[in-house]
Amino acid sequence: MNRDPSGASLYPGQTTTELCPTTTFDGEPLYLPGHEPDEAEIARRRDRWLLPYHAALTAELALLRERHGRVVLYDCHSIRSHVPRLFDGELPQFNIGTNNGVTCDPALEAAVERACAATARSLVVNGRFRGGYTTRHHGRPETGVHAIQMELACRGYLDEPDLPDETNWPTPFDPARAAPLVADLHAILTACLDWKATA
Predict the structure, then answer these.
(1) Is the pTM of this model over 0.90?
(2) What are the distances in angstroms from CA 29 to CA 9, 24, 26, 122, 164?
(3) Element (DSSP H or E) covering residue 182
């Protein structure tokens, strides 16, 4: 749902998954040989799920924009802290993406960065993850729609095995481990609302 409907890569030159992924982030096949989706099946899935999803989101953003003037679309995802196929080393806990400042007001990006920094957790702005299709397509600050993506490292809310495989991954959500992160996310979303109220 966060890929360009055309199939174009959001990160040219970097490893990523396709519109209809055929491998996991670790490069393992998701389909038996010869059973991968062909162009017709990819088009069917795009038309059945991806395009209606983004049409509904567009309509909702328009409604909110009409009611409130400015809207913040906060698109949150998560991924394991270590995925060597996609990035080197350990991913920061907070990965803020605005497609290099294009998808939201710079003051909103700065407010979210400050809120993340106040947690003392690691963070990066427009690092490996700069915002997917949702952020890039819907983020139009000039029209009052400000989009920001947050890619969370999973370690904030569950245990991550050193060597994940089908026997130990995914691990269950850990409410106790997640509680501090939930509080941090509350503060980050409050920063978004405070920016919206004063902008």
Answers:
(1) yes
(2) 19, 6, 9, 32, 15
(3) helix 175-198
